[in-house]
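Much of our argument rests on the idea that a fold can be written as discrete symbols. In the encoding step, the backbone of a single protein was reduced to a row of integers, each denoting a local shape. We regard such an encoding as a compact summary of how the chain folds. The record that follows shows the chain in one-letter code together with its fold in token form:
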Amino acid sequence: MKKLIYLDNAATTRTAPEVVEAMLPYFTEHYGNPSSVYSLAGESKKAVAKAREIIAGALGAAAEEIYFTAGGSEADNWALKAAAESYKSKGNHIITTKIEHHAVLHTCEWLERNGFEVTYLNVDEQGRVRLEELKKAIRPTTILISIMFANNEIGTIEPIREIGEIAHEHGILFHTDAVQAFGQVPIHVDAYHIDMLSSSGHKLNGPKGIGFLYIRKGLKLRSLIHGGAQERKRRAGTENVPGIVGYGAAVARAVRTMEERTVRERELRDYLIDRVLKEIPYTRLNGHRTDRLPNNANFSFQFIEGESLLIMLDMEGICGSSGSACTSGSLDPSHVLLAIGLPHEIAHGSLRLTLNEENTKEELDFVIEQLKKIVERLRSMSPLYEDFTRRQ
């Protein structure tokens, strides 16, 4: 069996050994329900509180502003639906972008079916929101702006500080989906005027099935899940104690290693980008060249299908993606790539490679050599490429 080279860390990451180690006692030894009153339960309650403090500290937030969820999609749904319902007396207009994760886009579509109006902002060719267009989209009835911190497909980091300032100046709530960014770039909720923020544990070497929604103190948001009094009566259900503990450990690890880790990831990312663009003709980089996540490289190769490329890479032990893992079963091209202006035929030939701290330059050299061979082979079978070369 070929050595596995995993380059799909935007889809999910390997749970770090120290995270697993931190979780294990809460499956077997400290298994009490945090809502119970006896001492066994107290151990679980203390562990949840500690994790909440770690996560809050990483954002410059207060512990009581962190609410645990089952993941980023739940947090996005909660933020948008609860804000819309809670502030509908002030207005019914929401602003987002055309490149959001489907957890936001599909929630906005649901809100539109329930009487709300949504403006979907265009982005420039690098995937960045135009601040002047955002300002023009604001109405007297605008109650919420929801714009992701960094795009999950092309890696572009949005001007979040400026967006937060605009929202704050107009008295509009600001939510950001930071699922890809949290743990990869520094985030301070007060400095960026963020009112709500979504995150998911499995994107930063934590466990799956756990996330959180940061809710600024003073916001009046209803519960998404009704039942018990957990999460200060805002999110019912027995807490996922092992998951929460693991998430706390993953965040502590991410904060501790961020500076050194992201410097190395940027070096490898830029090495990968430079070689691919130089050595494979008719290739473009998607997303902003520098204002992008440290570990993200997204390419479009003309005259090939991304699905065939992924299959052939997999045969060489290389794991990549053509876009979001949440839409991997779709035959449609990426909505993100279409939004930045790519035609369908080029958007179909996309490849997203997202690194982790364990990847090496030697691995990337192997990947690049395989990419060159596979792209050449796929193009040799393409009548479009044959016509194109004949005309040159």
